[in-house]
Recover the amino acids of this structure.
């Protein structure tokens, strides 16, 4: 057999049919890559959206649990403030202070009347030291003069006591 | 260089001027405060003049009149100062809706008070001892019948206004407590918790009703003693509500997992 005959026989060489089938299946099993267009971009966008939604939901639930946004009071079933003893105590204490302030609202009512040489006893019910007769305890910060004169001494007379003396 | 020196000198002079004006203002305030202290000695000057045998009758009358006018002027000045301070506090008090109307009415009454003081001060010129006595009597009668009640009304209005924040806070707490108890009750019934919540709700409704009564008393310009009593009642009721809140809070804490 000469060389030419051998080369002619190469033309008749074929792959094994089973190998051909297996190779075809393997090739077809590999996903086809889209080389261009929307089909390639959609999964990427979807992935970003998924990640974004996950982050937003996680943040929402964290905020909800910690009660850190205004609407949380309408969503969280049990607010921490309901069982917070310090907050409750502080609010109750504010009310007690306001009650004390209400009791101080008429300091003149309990002020002992000053005595004078000219008249034995003042008869004015709401006699108050001068400068303090009508000033609210709330006004004390704006009127420094009133705080100096609210403490009655034996020589201090109220506006109304002075007027009573002056009318005689 | 010359310009730089001029700027430095001007700056030092300016700072000095500011310092001096601040000190003058401070002393003026202190003097004004001291001026509004009236003592038995001040009023006793009249008796001293009356008993001074060294004075002639005419000199005695002149001296007594001068003292009386000085004292009445001082009373009027200090009375106006009191009114101004109270008015300023009232103006700062927040008010909306019908409470704004009440506030405006009270502020108008201060205008009337200022006018009355000015009229009486003007009358003082040219009067004798009897005239000054009459002015003192008018001032006293007006203060007792008008100004002292007005100051009481204003103080009560300011007090009531400052209470509203407490009621707003309590309303929020009541709502949160209601929601918490409703949630816990949906999981498991608790008779003690239900009862404690009902007590808190009743107490808070009572406090709100008394707060509304106090507002009505202020709006009707009832005597200050009555409106003050109503305000105090509302605060006492609110204090009771917080005791009830405390009981509910303790029960909720006991139910929740530690």
């Amino acid at each position: 057999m000469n060389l030419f005959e051998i080369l002619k026989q190469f033309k008749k060489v074929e792959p094994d049919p089973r190998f051909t089938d297996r190779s075809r299946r393997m090739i077809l099993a590999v996903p086809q890559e889209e080389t261009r267009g929307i089909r390639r971009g959609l999964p990427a966008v979807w992935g970003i959206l998924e990640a974004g939604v996950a982050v937003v939901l996680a943040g929402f639930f964290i905020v909800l649990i910690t009660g850190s946004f205004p609407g949380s009071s309408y969503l969280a079933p049990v607010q921490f403030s309901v069982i917070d003893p310090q907050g409750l105590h502080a609010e109750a204490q504010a009310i007690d202070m306001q009650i004390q302030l209400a009791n101080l609202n008429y300091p003149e009512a309990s002020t002992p009347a000053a005595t004078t040489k000219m008249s034995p006893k003042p008869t004015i019910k709401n006699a108050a030291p001068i400068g303090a007769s009508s000033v609210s305890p709330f006004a004390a910060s704006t009127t420094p003069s009133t705080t100096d004169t609210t403490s009655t001494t034996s020589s201090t007379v109220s506006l109304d006591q002075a007027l009573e003396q002056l009318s005689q | 260089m010359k310009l730089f020196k001029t700027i430095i000198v001007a700056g030092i002079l300016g700072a000095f001027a500011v310092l001096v004006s601040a000190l003058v203002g401070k002393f003026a305030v202190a003097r004004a405060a001291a001026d509004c202290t009236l003592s038995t000695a001040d009023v006793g000057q009249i008796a001293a003049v009356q008993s001074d045998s060294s004075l002639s009758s005419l000199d005695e009358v002149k001296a007594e009149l001068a003292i009386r006018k000085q004292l009445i002027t001082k009373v009027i000045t200090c009375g106006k100062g009191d009114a101004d301070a109270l008015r300023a506090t009232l103006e700062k008090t927040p008010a909306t809706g019908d409470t704004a109307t009440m506030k405006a009415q009270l502020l108008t009454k201060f205008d009337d008070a200022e006018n009355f003081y000015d009229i009486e001060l003007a009358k003082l010129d040219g009067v004798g001892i009897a005239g000054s006595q009459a002015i003192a009597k008018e001032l006293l009668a007006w203060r007792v019948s008008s100004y002292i009640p007005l100051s009481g009304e204003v103080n009560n209005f300011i007090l009531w206004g400052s209470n509203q924040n407490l009621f707003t806070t309590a309303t929020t707490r009541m709502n949160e407590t209601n929601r918490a108890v409703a949630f816990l009750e949906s999981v498991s019934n608790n008779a003690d918790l239900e009862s404690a919540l009902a007590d808190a709700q009743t107490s808070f409704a009572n406090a709100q009703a008394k707060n509304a009564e106090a507002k009505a008393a202020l709006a009707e310009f009832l005597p200050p003693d009555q409106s003050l009593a109503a305000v105090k009642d509302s605060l006492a009721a609110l204090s009771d509500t917080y005791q009830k809140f405390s009981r509910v809070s303790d029960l909720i804490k006991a139910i929740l997992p530690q």
Notes: The CA atoms of residues 93 and 164 of chain A lie 42 Å apart.
